[in-house]
Queue: 4 jobs
Job 1
Amino acid sequence: METQNLLNKLEGIQTIESIIEILKVNKKKATYYVYRLRKEGYVKTGAASNKKRIYHISRKNRLGGKSYYEIINAHSPIKLAESSFYKIYGREPSLEETLIFSIKTKRIRVITAALSLFKSINNWTLLGELARKNHVERSVGALYDVSRTIIKTRRMSKLLRNSLLPSKNAEFAEIIKGFRSKDFKDIEENWKIRIPLNKADLEDYK
């Protein structure tokens, strides 16, 4: 079967079982077609929450680039199942952009995994600009302080830290609505924001 015909039939998120059903072929043939499409750059492989292998088949995959989850997984001991592909085509997102993305997902596992990015971030000016643009200044500051309790990070510039700190009269905000920390109350108080993490959530970093 020609490549374009395969793409017309399979473009989207597939499993080996769905490919067998769509193409009416056996497992060996379905596996071969996945191999062919991957070799030509059309397939990215991920895993569902049940660890089942899934294939993201798209013409856009040939444009290159990486997903935010791929970048986090490359830096973190906590691996994210890429059931959703937040991919930036044609370029690779920066670590600073990826960190902001993780905060905006409002998902505990994504945020926890992304703490490892602080170990490699060195463009504090860009991080500050993105934090202000996305209105997550306090989240960035608080999570940076949390990250320093578990990993050795690069030191945030004093200029950036001071620019991210809230005013003394600021009301408490929340990173994830309804979640607060039992273990990082001092950081919460300093940044006037509720942190959705406890020490037990960070055990994979040990």
Job 2
Amino acid sequence: MSYRVIYKETPLPRATPARRQATMSSSEEFATEHQALGRARELLETGQHHSVAMHDHSGNELSGVRLQWRLGGFAGE
């Protein structure tokens, strides 16, 4: 199974609308759910990303409150 973590940088408060729109999304692939949850936790804890979502091999998405709830039960490494 594969998991994908998708994230977007936090927009700059004084950026022009065009600059905010140009903020790119990034994604990373992981072989296990454990690895993907670990990376999602890292991204959320740094506070440098506007949004973080995780997709599994079936296309199911965890984001927002559901992702935070899932991470609450995740001990990390």
Job 3
Amino acid sequence: MATLKLKVNINGSSKENLLEQHREIYSHLLEARSMMRKAFPHGRDYQVNPEEDYLHDRDETERRLDIIDNLMEEYQQDYFYIETQGR
């Protein structure tokens, strides 16, 4: 996992602004994850397909959800990193 290396400073964005940006990004990722869960493949949509099609789509959706989960974790870590800085 990669954490941002930015430093809050007098010439840059305020700490509050950076934290708000990260809260908003996290909120949108959470919303995207929820929508993806609602669209998770269901066996009833594959009744006329070979079983492999359903298994493929299920695994692919899990992979995509993992990406969102990793992004959420990274933004949360960045948030805590920014929060510990002065100003």
Job 4
Amino acid sequence: MPIDFTSIFYSTSPSKVADPEEGAELFAQQYSQSPSIDIITDFADFILESTVTRPGDLDPLIQAALLISRNVSLPTVYWTSDRPKNAFDEVFNVDFRDKIHSNLSISETSERTEFLRGSFIAGRARSLGLVTSPETVGAVGEGLKFADEVIYNSTGEIAEIRALGACLQLLGSAGKLIELFGERFSVVKVIKSLEEIRASAGDNRLVDVSPWIHATYFSLIQFCFAANDSSLAIDTTKGPFEWRDRTNYALSRLERTVDGQ
């Protein structure tokens, strides 16, 4: 029996954020009635799709997924003949992580939408403690063109798209990256890489990707790491809109600076 994820996890009021605990409880009730691996994989797809359909609701959705994954009372599901009984979190974590990795695998410019979606959600999933991996962390270093982390040696538009993806991950989880990998992602190292990328890109938009991600993010990240705005780079999860509000604030600061205000 399929589950209507939208009615469970999204608030009906545009001015109200969905309650992660309430969503997790409703999901557990419906899932327990007819547990299946299809529901788990569909749930992973639903979270990925929300990066486009409801990006403002991504945080409470990830928080709900984390609560669900920690619910040990959920029924097990059949996966394969070798693994006939599997806990929800075992299946979900593998499927969700694999789908993010798939989105972060880019070889053609036509795959940029999927890549940026994967980058966007990888950052928030890491920050909120749902999932992280060497592949998602490595994508940041590759996008920033760290000299000691050139994995794909991307050039042209692919390199530009990777750089934008790195910025999205930084916006979503800069604080967590500093906390977990302080030497690898030091403020000095990140800012130096961003300055080099911006210098090579000029003032024009790098890649026409979507309304919510463009070349000014390179400047935005530098604002987040600037000495006077150091708190902007730390993920505090004060509320589901906290990181988005922080981003909008930094972007408005950037625009006023560009306009000479």
